[in-house]
Structures are given as structure tokens and as C-alpha cells.
Specification:
Blueprint (H helix, E strand, L loop, with lengths): L10 H6 L7 H14 L3 H13 L3 H29 L2 H4 L8 H34 L8 E6 L2 E6 L2 H7 L9 H21 L5 H24 L5 H6 L9 H14 L6 H6 L8 H25 L13 H10 L6 H34 L3 H22 L1 H30 L2 H12 L5 H27 L5 H27 L6 H9 L10 H14 L3 E5 L46 H11 L13 E2 L7 E7 L1
Antiparallel strand pairs: 1-2, 3-5, 4-5
Helix pairs in contact: 2-9, 2-13, 3-11, 3-13, 3-15, 4-11, 4-13, 4-18, 6-8, 6-15, 6-16, 6-17, 6-20, 8-16, 9-15, 14-15, 15-16, 17-18, 17-19, 17-20, 18-22, 20-21
Length: 633
């Protein structure tokens, strides 16, 4: 069967909805969701900054290759896990209860990124409002320069202007902080309204803001001069592809752009993509992200002034828009559209990052999603304003080092737990059940070697930052404290799970904590029943297989050592072509041969003999030959 063959009516969809058959609404929903999420702030603001800092088109080539080779399989895996578990990033770890704390830490990282993204969106909104108040440059950013005919008003550069106004310390001028704080407060309240009824309001918000971004992008392109775009393709230094820092930055950027490691795909796999072909969805999501990334880089490159030195700070896009608007022939409408595009893009990212937090916490603690949404928004207001008081140094630290190390660590632990602790065979069977087709062993191999590669990247980056640290000491210790806090949280959860497991010793409890819980698996009743039945056929370590050299009767039956694992081979006999009948008896309680034989006779009248426990056994009533032997399944 084709590896990525997608069926319209698979086991999961039929179990959930008997009338299921038309997959077109699900396909449209998944495509629209992928298109909207792909134009988030990581694509429209972070990616152009990374391109400017790491060599232009060479970086985009590395980003594209890594997204297809490594990020696409990870997106596919997370969507499949979400569709299988159906309840988000926390209850996914019913498969390995020892790592349950990893689900909470991933949600914490997702919320942390949403917090400083909201600070960025608040700055963009404030700059847009102040630009709409009067002509550019802003009144607070004007300088008088002597000219031949008197004095001339000249605007200060964008970076200096922003730092002297909205980023001014609170103690020096609290007015600017109050403006940004009011905007951030309003935006977080709007987030809570967009998450008031999940997933319907979440999807509707994505559609609205995604459509706005599409219209704004087309308008900016029509009004823009694209002559400078040619230089992006022709002025390329391909030697930069030999630098390992470029490949690391490209891989981290692909994780940010694809929303990997934040619990988004695991959550939407069971809610948004639950009735669509997962590989098509993952492929469409990845390709659309790559396309939007290229378009975003070219869009910002087209309005960049190539005569000025490139700015690679975290506010690069804001500074680029403001500096470009200072030119004499600049269009105020075009740059207002550029600000609005960043606002819509940032709002989509915040919604995508807070959606798994609200969904998973409401399922874990049985709270109403509306209450959790308000709680997340109130907490987000407090955290965003706190980070804004601390300054951009904290945001730079989070975005450039803490969150990338978080993502790499979480991805390595997640893949290690699923494929090494839970077991790659069991994981392969679960994925094949939910996808309704075979999984290529190359994907399994790729998922199994990625924890090793990610661990090497983590060690290299930590060693590099420790040796080359040039920032302030308090940001260094803040970074160390956050990393230790996350690992300590995972450890505390692991200890709590181990102590609450049944067993006579610490080793037995540890082994029990590494095994999947009884609640692991699909939640829906019919689907869970089908999975348990499917699992019982795959989980046998041994089975009895036919190995007759002589003609035998067609009424022989062989039972395994456990009465709950009865098995009859359905292969044709090589001599007389007699066909063994198939019989499955699951969850059979009794272990008495007499009762077992009686019940088997009641279920199948043609069965006349029962053979159990022995390695080689003769049929006592009919053929009288050694017809069966024990072998691996």
C-alpha cells in the first residue's frame, strides 16, 4: 500500500461519525488554517531579521532545505500524535507518564513567546497611532539642522527615535510606558474574546486576520518598486553555506515558523486536522510556510534603503518601515499598511501560541475554556508589562537563546520518550492505526536519530554562549535560572509520578512510570475499542504458526499460554489447501481448559480439539501428526 495514501473514510472518522464521507469541508478548513498560521510574526518579522544577519539568499536556501528535510517529518509526526491522542500536549504523555512535566513546560514556552510577541505588537500599534496623528517624522523625533537658506527639520533615525520615545525608561517619562501598556492591555482582552469558544472563534479569528494580511500584502506589492529585489538574488555569497552557525540559525527559524515544539500541532491535530489527510496537511503547511517566508523577505527587501547599513536588531522591521517613510517620495498609506500587516501577523501568532495553552489546561483540570482564556489573558497582561519594564534585552535573550534551546531540548526529550521509552514498534503501530496506512521505515529512522543530533546542537550552543557571553550579568543568570526551572519542573513531575505508582521498590515504580497508562489512546469509545482490538493483534511477542509437512485436519486449534491471547493461523496448508478458521477471543477471564474448551465449542461447533502450552503437540483426535511449533510473530 502507498506510504502516504489517504482514505476518505478511515477508521477514526467512521468511528466518530457514521455519516462521515465528505471530506471537502475538512480539507478547506485545514488549508485555510495552514495559510493563516503561516503568516505569523515568526515569518513576517523574525525571518527577515535572520536573513539580514546571516547572509541573505544563502540563509533562505538553507532554511528551505531544512524545512523540507527535517521540519516536514516533525510536523507530520505531531499532527498524527494529536489526531491519535485527541487531547493535546499534556495528555499525550499518558504514553510515557514519566515525562508528563514536559507537556507543561512546552505550554510554558508557548506562553512565554506569546508574551514577548505581544510587546512587539504593542510597539507596532503605538507607532502606527503616533504616525497617524501627524506627519512623519514624529514631533518628538525632529531635529533642526542648519541649511543654506536657514534651518531644516530632519527626522532622527528610526532606532534612535523609538528608544527615545516608546522605549524610554519608566522613571524618565512614564507617559510612553502608559501608552504601550494600555495598548497591550486592550490586545490581551481581544485575545480572550477570540478564544472564548474553541475552536470555532479561534478559526474565525485566523480567517479574518489572515485575509487582512493577504489584502495588505497585495496592496503593498502593487504600490512598491521591486527593482531592488533583483539584487537579493544576484548579490549572494554562497560561501556562507559552509558556516555551521547559518545552518543552526536556519533550523531554529524553521522551528519558529512551523510552530514546532509549542504544542500547536499536537492540539490542532485532534481538533482542526482530525478529518483531513495528515501528510497532505503537513506538506501543505510546510510548503506554504516556505513560500510565505520567501515573499516576506522579498517584500521587506523591496522597501529597504540599500545605501544605508543593514539593521539586524530585534526591531528591524519597525525601524525599516519608519526609516523608509522619512524619504520625500514615501507614501504614508503604504507604510500604514505595512504597520497593520505586522499587527495582524503578530495577533495571529499570539492566538496560535495561546490556543494550545487554553485548550490543554481546560482539559487537564476540567475548567471551562472561557475561564481559562480569561486567566491566560490576565496573566499575559502582567507578564508582558513586566518584560516591557525590563527592556528589550530580555526579549533579545529569550528570542535568540532561551527559546531556541528550549525548543531543541523539548524536541529531543519528546522524540526520546516516544521512540525509546514508549517504543518505536508500539509508536509505529499507533501511527499506522490512526493513519490507516503503513509508515516508511526511513521516517522511523529519522525520528529516532534526531534526539542524538539535537542533543549535540544543544551542547554546542550552550558551550558557545558560555564562552562568548558579552551581555550583562543579570541577563545571564536569568537565562540560567529559566533553564534550570524548566528541567526542575520536569524532574519534580517525574518524581511525583514515580512515587504514586504501584510497586514494591523504586525500580519497579520507575519501570511502571515508563509504561503507558491505561488511559493512553483515543478518547472516543468506538475508536478506542477498534484500537484495542488492533493493538492486541500487534502486541504479541510470540504466536503459534503452522509448520506441517503432513496432511492435517482442518479442525485443529492452538491457543497461546495466555487465555486472553487466543490465535488461529489463517494461512493455507501447503499440502491439502485446508484453511484454518480465524478466532479472536479478547479479555477472556477464565484459565481453566475445561471451561475454555466448552466456550470454544459453543462459539465454533466444528472445533473438536484444543492444544495448549506445549512446544510441539499432536492432534489427539484427527491427523495425529506434529503440526504446530512456537515461533516469533
Amino acid at each position: 500500500m502507498n506510504q502516504f495514501h489517504c482514505t476518505t473514510n478511515n477508521a477514526q472518522d467512521t468511528a466518530r461519525d457514521p455519516n462521515y464521507g465528505d471530506e471537502r469541508p475538512a480539507v478547506v478548513r485545514s488549508i485555510l488554517c495552514s495559510v493563516c498560521v503561516a503568516v505569523g510574526l515568526a515569518t513576517t518579522a523574525r525571518l527577515p531579521r535572520e536573513v539580514a544577519a546571516h547572509g541573505g539568499a544563502a540563509f533562505m536556501v538553507a532554511y528551505t532545505l531544512l524545512s523540507i528535510a527535517f521540519t516536514l517529518p516533525l510536523v507530520f509526526l505531531e499532527l498524527a500524535l494529536g489526531k491519535f491522542s485527541e487531547q493535546g500536549a499534556i495528555k499525550l504523555w499518558r504514553s510515557v507518564p514519566l515525562l508528563k512535566g514536559l507537556g507543561y513546560v512546552k505550554l510554558f514556552a508557548s506562553f512565554l513567546v506569546a508574551v514577548y510577541y505581544m510587546v512587539y505588537v504593542g510597539l507596532v500599534c503605538a507607532l502606527l497611532i503616533w504616525t497617524a496623528k501627524g506627519p512623519v517624522p514624529l514631533a518628538e523625533c525632529r531635529e533642526l539642522h542648519r541649511a543654506l537658506d536657514g534651518y531644516q527639520v530632519v527626522g532622527t533615525p528610526g532606532q534612535k527615535c523609538i528608544y527615545e520615545t516608546f522605549l524610554k525608561p519608566v522613571v524618565d517619562d512614564p507617559m510612553w510606558y502608559g501608552i504601550v501598556a494600555a495598548i497591550v492591555f486592550t490586545l490581551w482582552l481581544l485575545v480572550s474574546l477570540c478564544l472564548i469558544r474553541l475552536p470555532q472563534t479561534f478559526l474565525m479569528s485566523l480567517y479574518v486576520f489572515g485575509s487582512a494580511i493577504l489584502v495588505l500584502s497585495m496592496t503593498i506589492v502593487i504600490m512598491d518598486d521591486l527593482k531592488s529585489v533583483k539584487m537579493f538574488f544576484f548579490d549572494v555569497n554562497w560561501e556562507l553555506l559552509t558556516a555551521k552557525e547559518l545552518w543552526y540559525a536556519a533550523f531554529v527559524q524553521s522551528l519558529f515558523s512551523m510552530h514546532l515544539g509549542f504544542g500547536y500541532h499536537v492540539t490542532t491535530g485532534g481538533t482542526v486536522y482530525n478529518k483531513s489527510c495528515l501528510f497532505r496537511s503537513a506538506l501543505w503547511f510546510t510548503l506554504w510556510n516556505i513560500l510565505c517566508g520567501w515573499l516576506s523577505v522579498l517584500l521587506w527587501h523591496s522597501i529597504e534603503d540599500t545605501k544605508k547599513p543593514k539593521d539586524t536588531s530585534i526591531l528591524m522591521t519597525l525601524i525599516l518601515i519608519y526609516d523608509s517613510s522619512l524619504s520625500k517620495d514615501a507614501s504614508a498609506v503604504k507604510f500604514s499598511f505595512a504597520y497593520t500587516l505586522l499587527i495582524c501577523s503578530g495577533f495571529i501568532s499570539v492566538l496560535s501560541l495561546t490556543y494550545p495553552v487554553v485548550w490543554c489546561i481546560s482539559l487537564e483540570d476540567c475548567y471551562h475554556k472561557r475561564s481559562v482564556g480569561w486567566l491566560v489573558s490576565i496573566t499575559g497582561i502582567f507578564c508582558s508589562l513586566s518584560i516591557f519594564v525590563l527592556g528589550l534585552d530580555v526579549i533579545v535573550l529569550l528570542d535568540s537563546f532561551v527559546i531556541p534551546i528550549y525548543l531543541l531540548t523539548f524536541m529531543a526529550l519528546e522524540l526520546f520518550g516516544l521512540f525509546y521509552i514508549y517504543g518505536f514498534k508500539y509508536m509505529k503501530h499507533d501511527l499506522e492505526f490512526i493513519l490507516n496506512h503503513k509508515i516508511n521505515y526511513f521516517l522511523i529512522f529519522l525520528w529516532m536519530i534526531m534526539p542524538i543530533a539535537l542533543s549535540g546542537m544543544i551542547c554546542w550552543q550552550i558551550w558557545k554562549h558560555f564562552n562568548d557571553w558579552s551581555g550583562s550579568s543579570w541577563t545571564f543568570w536569568l537565562m540560567i535560572g529559566m533553564f534550570i526551572f524548566s528541567l526542575l519542573h520536569i524532574t519534580i513531575w517525574a518524581v511525583w509520578v514515580i512515587t504514586h505508582k504501584e510497586g514494591y521498590g523504586i525500580m519497579q515504580k520507575l519501570i511502571s512510570a515508563c509504561k503507558s497508562s491505561r488511559k493512553w489512546g483515543p478518547v472516543e469509545f468506538k475508536l478506542r475499542y477498534k484500537w484495542l482490538h488492533y493493538k492486541s493483534t500487534k502486541k504479541r511477542s510470540k504466536a503459534w504458526k503452522l509448520d506441517c509437512k503432513e496432511p492435517m485436519c482442518s479442525n485443529c486449534i492452538v491457543a497461546s499460554n495466555k487465555p486472553s491471547d487466543l490465535y488461529l493461523d489463517s494461512d493455507k496448508h501447503s499440502t491439502n489447501n485446508s484453511i484454518q478458521k480465524i478466532l479472536w477471543v479478547t479479555e477472556y477471564e477464565t484459565a481453566k481448559p475445561s471451561n475454555l474448551t466448552t466456550d470454544l465449542h459453543a462459539m465454533e461447533p466444528n472445533i473438536s480439539c484444543l492444544v495448549r502450552h506445549s512446544r510441539k503437540t499432536k492432534c489427539s483426535k484427527h491427523c495425529g501428526h506434529v503440526c504446530w511449533k512456537e515461533s516469533g510473530f
